[in-house]
Specification:
The structure holds two protein chains of two kinds. By secondary structure, chain A is α/β, with parallel strands linked by helices. Helices cover 57% and strands 8% of the residues of chain A. In chain A, α9 packs antiparallel against α10 and α26 packs parallel to α31. Chain A starts with a helix and ends in a 5-residue tail after the last helix. Chain B is an alpha+beta fold. Chain B has four helices and twelve strands, in the order αβαββββββββββααβ. Chains A and B meet through α25, β9, β10 and α31 of A and β1 and β10 of B.
Chain lengths: 761, 257
């Protein structure tokens, strides 16, 4: 029976690893929530204090470090970015078993978690936690490389590098002991040198660990290359310029570079002020350490299949992370790379649809620079994607995004996100950019032109026809139009972009009834919009002023009255309570205590008001609340993206996951709120004493004023609808006083009251 | 009384539209303030009971929206006027283009002030929700002062001839006078227990007749007792102003409902 159970366990475990990339779902944590995430930071700190040598000269600094490191590591652990019991973490654990098979004590102290980040990185904490990122996993070439990365981080932990670095840094910064005669610049160099020494030490110890295994030691050299060039995509394959093309959509060659900028090799750079040594030095040191030593030659020990699976999962997950980072060009290039093997993969195609949509929205909003790095700063094959997106006008990317999403909508009619993106892109194209049907060429027109073998002339004739219509105007405006036209042409030629390929792109879709209906629907709205604008133009100044006045009056009235949303249930996600001082030092212990009190107060207050709340915060998670953990994680991604888009109406990349979240929480309304209290010295004490000289009665007041620091308290609350991203409440309130309980209660009550109350009552 | 009833009615009428958050749902607060101000009138009267003048102030306040409130306050204080001043001088000075008269009290007495204010409060700082937090109050009201409330038989003497022939003078007109006052107060309220709060602030009060040409005597002081009574009235107003010019207010309040 036992054998049968074991076999079943093995089977289920292999099923987890055999996750088919074609069915990729966002990576989530699973199983029980580890104590590292659930345990209060203060309790961890108290436990660590028990291990501090009370007689040590560094006792105070050690305690400072333990306080800071526990709270900072917990900030990461409780950020929702951490995965546990997931394929990546579990695979790393297996490799740790292998490389530490002769060091059971160390192995027992170490656990690995994955960070959902596109940056390639790994690091260890003083508590024995090893973090590896999805970005790193997507870049590695084999298991031996990962084994060295883990061995390097284990060495940092074993040698207590984080603690020792902190203690040494404190001595350098404070100029204690041997450092007391050093100036600022010398101190900076000392700090970086100390850090570099620890890196060399970890490389050496890590390579020694690998020497004791069968892993190939040659891979250690290569892993430095992986880390050095991790800013590049995970592969370098020329981008197919016809990737988006079909019978009617043809992106011309002029949108691409003739040749890309080659990857820049800068390996032996000046690292004197860097915390990490440069790659050449690291390679040399490791080479010297391994000189005349014979190591293993295996690239894989645990499992090559597992490695490939985990790396594939990471690469798929990278697309999601790129979209969350609003790195749409990278999402497109990475999607292209993955599509070479799986051209019909739904997940990849969905990522492309989302990236195109995002790019179209930002281009049209005039916020391109936020999401698109200038292509001349990019090296390697992905530069073509940056160049293409850079060269396209907002209408062009709008058309490509609309076409791609429309095809996806037809292929996956049950996926609401494609309908939402199509709706938005239609609005953008027809209502905002005022592109009517006549702007686009139909199949017949193109066929006619093809027969005469001159498609471009059709577009030109089309423009000429429009110009002729305009030439019915008076001469004055004809001259102005000519001048305007010349100016536009000049600016277009500067953009190196004369093509109007987008006019042809929708020819096939325009013959589809559903597409045409959507188009007509927008045209009606456009007509209505124009009519309203015309009416507004015809209004007298007094009428316009009166309307504006009424609008402002109503707005002020609403502001004074506050909201009355009549909502019965909300989910409160990850509330925050932070107490800081002017040196940006966080009062960790107080902040955590206040947060727990804040959470409890919310529950009680909501109950008193008859408002049902779901509190989703790591501080309150029970060991088996894995569903809530994953919801928390998804919502944090959603909110981060929502805040990045600011006031732009946007179908977020995670919005297709929100239906499940809504079902689980029982509400579509989520609240982010918190308190930040900031303490600083007063700068206007002198005025009060001058006042006291003139009017002595206020002297006691002036003394009290002078002796007490200045406080600022910020209370923020954002209530979102996760269905459409609307913010019903978006307030950051400040006041020049301490975060008294009364103040916090008052604001919290006001938030809940606005949510719960109903104006019609 | 009718006016007070009307104001109270208005305050409670606002509470009928109660959807305001107030402080934890409570939008009406009552408050007692101890208002301390330097007895500036000492310089004129010569002697007072204390260098600090103490006033008692009661306030009822209702939040009308997120950052405003309306309220009604009543204030009471007495100014002690001794019959014999430290320099033997004369307390109430009456001047005219030709002559000066001095009304000298024959007995110690008090000037009693009772003031009623309509208070409009603004709660500054976005996180302050009325009626709680940092506030700026602007109040408009009337101050009644009466000279003989405690001793209706008070007599003054005055030198009617200018040669030391003192004549007794009894206030024959009504001895309660009114003046309009405007007040600005800045302070903050802090919760000290459930629904109980401590309030502190500083205030400045101005008698409107000092800003506006209301009730200032402009006639000849020689003639009638009535005119002399006007002098008393304006001098009383002056003392009233001195008593209210600057105040440090310490109060305790309770959120009713």
């Amino acid at each position: 029976m036992k054998v049968f159970l074991y076999a079943l366990l093995l089977l289920s475990s292999s099923l987890v690893f055999a996750q088919n990339a074609e069915e990729h779902k966002p990576l989530t944590a699973s199983g029980y929530i580890p104590e590292d995430i659930r345990k209060l930071s203060y309790d961890k700190f108290k436990d660590d204090l028990g291990n501090v040598d009370k007689k040590s000269a560094d006792r105070k600094s050690t305690e400072e470090f333990l306080l800071m490191s526990n709270y900072r590591v917990d900030e990461l652990l409780q950020s929702g970015k951490i995965l546990f019991n997931d394929p990546i973490s579990e695979y790393c654990e297996k490799i740790l078993d292998e490389i530490l098979k002769d060091d059971a004590d160390t192995r027992a102290k170490i656990r690995v978690y994955t960070i959902r980040s596109s940056i390639a990185n790994a690091f260890a904490t003083n508590q024995g936690i090893l973090f590896v990122t999805v970005g790193l996993m997507a870049q590695l070439e084999n298991e031996a490389q990962l084994a060295f990365v883990l061995a390097h981080e284990v060495s940092h932990f074993k040698e207590k590098h984080t603690l020792n670095s902190y203690l040494e840094n404190q001595k350098i910064i404070k100029g204690k002991g041997e450092y007391r005669h050093y100036g600022y610049n010398e101190s900076i160099k000392l700090l970086s040198q100390y850090s570099k020494d620890k890196e060399f030490e970890a490389d050496e110890l890590g390579s020694n660990v690998i020497l004791n295994t069968d892993y190939s030691i040659e891979e250690i050299n290569y892993v430095f290359d992986v880390l050095q060039y991790s800013y590049l995509p995970f592969d370098e394959i020329p981008f197919d310029k016809t990737f988006f093309n079909d019978d009617y959509l043809k992106i011309p060659d002029e949108f691409f570079l003739d040749s890309i900028y080659p990857i820049v090799i800068k390996e032996n750079y000046d690292d004197s002020e860097s915390t990490h040594p440069n790659i050449v030095k690291r390679k040399e040191r490791v080479k010297n350490n391994l000189k005349d030593k014979k190591g293993g030659d295996k690239l894989f020990i645990v499992s090559e299949e597992d490695f490939n699976n985990v790396r594939n999962i990471s690469r798929y997950e990278l697309l999601r992370l790129n979209l969350l980072d609003r790195n749409y060009p990278k999402a497109l290039y990475n999607s292209y790379l993955l599509s070479l093997e799986n051209p019909d993969d739904k997940y990849i195609k969905t990522s492309i649809a989302k990236a195109l949509y995002g790019m179209a929205k930002y281009k049209n909003a005039g916020r391109t620079s936020e999401v698109l790095t200038y292509y001349k700063k990019i090296h390697g094959e992905s530069q073509q994607v940056y160049k293409m997106l850079h060269s396209m006008k907002s209408t062009q990317i709008n058309v490509i995004a609309l076409k791609y999403n429309w095809i996806m909508k037809k292929q996956y009619p049950d996926e609401a996100i494609f309908t939402q993106m199509c709706d938005d892109l239609f609005d953008l194209l027809v209502i905002e950019n005022e592109k009517e049907k006549s702007y686009f060429l139909t199949k017949k027109e193109i066929e006619k032109a093809q027969n005469s073998n001159d498609t471009t002339s059709i577009a030109e004739n089309d423009i000429k026809e429009e110009e002729n219509k305009e030439n019915k105007r008076s001469k004055k405006y004809i001259v102005i139009d000519e001048r305007r036209s010349n100016t536009n042409k000049e600016s277009e030629s500067k953009d190196e972009n004369k093509s109007s390929f987008e006019k042809f792109a929708l020819a096939d879709l325009l013959e589809e009834g559903a597409f045409e209906n959507e188009f007509n629907d927008r045209l009606e709205k456009l007509e209505k919009k124009k009519k309203e604008e015309e009416e507004e133009e015809n209004m007298s100044y007094a009428q316009k002023k009166s309307i504006r006045h009424e609008e402002q009056k109503e707005k002020k009235k609403q502001e004074r009255k506050g909201k009355a949303l009549g909502i019965d249930k909300i989910a409160v996600i990850d509330p925050m309570y932070l107490q800081m001082d002017s040196r940006n030092n966080t009062k960790y212990i107080n902040s955590e205590k206040k947060l727990l009190d804040f959470n409890n107060t919310m529950i009680t207050m909501a109950s008193d008001l008859g408002l049902s709340i779901e509190l989703v915060t790591p501080k309150e998670f029970t060991i088996d609340a894995i569903n809530y953990y994953n919801i928390f994680s998804l919502l944090n991604d959603w909110a981060a993206e929502r805040f990045d888009h600011e006031d732009m109406e946007f179908v977020q990349s995670t919005s297709d996951l929100m239906e499940e979240v809504k079902k689980e929480l029982g509400t579509k309304y989520i609240l982010y709120n918190g308190v930040i209290s900031y303490k600083q010295k007063k700068s206007d004490v002198g005025y009060y004493f001058c006042g006291a000289i003139l009017y002595p009665l206020i002297l006691p007041y002036a003394i009290v004023y002078a002796l007490t620091p200045e406080y600022w308290t910020y209370y923020y609350n954002y209530l979102f609808d996760i269905e459409n991203g609307n913010a019903y409440i978006a307030d950051v309130k400040d006041t020049k006083q301490k975060d008294h309980r009364g103040l916090v209660l008052s604001n919290l009550y006001h938030t809940f009251n606005q949510i719960k109350r109903n104006r019609t009552k | 009384m009718k006016n007070i009833t009307l104001i109270l009615f208005l305050i409670f009428a606002f509470s009928l539209s109660a959807q305001q958050s107030g402080y934890m749902g409570k939008t009406i607060a009552i408050q007692y303030n101890l208002a301390l101000s330097p007895a500036l009138s000492a310089g004129f009267i010569g002697n007072t009971e204390s260098p600090i003048s103490i006033k008692h102030d009661f306030l009822i306040e209702k939040s009308i929206n997120e950052n405003s409130s309306i309220g009604f306050s009543f204030r009471h204080n007495d100014v002690y006027v001794p019959a014999k001043t430290k320099d033997g001088g004369i307390n109430f000075e009456i001047s005219s283009p030709n002559r000066q008269y001095f009304l000298t009290p024959k007995k110690d007495f008090f000037i009693t002030h009772n003031s009623f204010f309509l208070v409009l409060g603004t709660y500054t700082g976005k996180a302050n929700i009325a009626p709680f937090g940092s506030y700026t109050n602007v109040s408009l009201g009337t101050s009644m002062y009466s000279i003989s409330n405690k001793n209706p038989e008070i007599l003054f003497t005055y030198d009617s001839t200018g040669y030391g022939d003192n004549t007794d003078y009894k206030l024959i007109d009504k001895n309660t006078y009114y003046t309009l006052m405007i007040s600005v107060e800045y302070g903050f309220k802090r919760i000290i227990a459930k629904d109980l709060y401590f309030s502190s602030g500083i205030a400045c009060n101005i008698n409107l007749p000092y800003l506006l040409p209301l009730g200032q005597f402009s006639g000849d002081a020689d003639n009638t007792l009535l005119e002399q009574a006007e002098y008393v009235k304006s001098t009383g107003r002056f003392y009233n102003q001195l008593q209210h010019l600057f105040e440090l207010k310490l109060g305790i309040g309770y959120f009713l409902f």
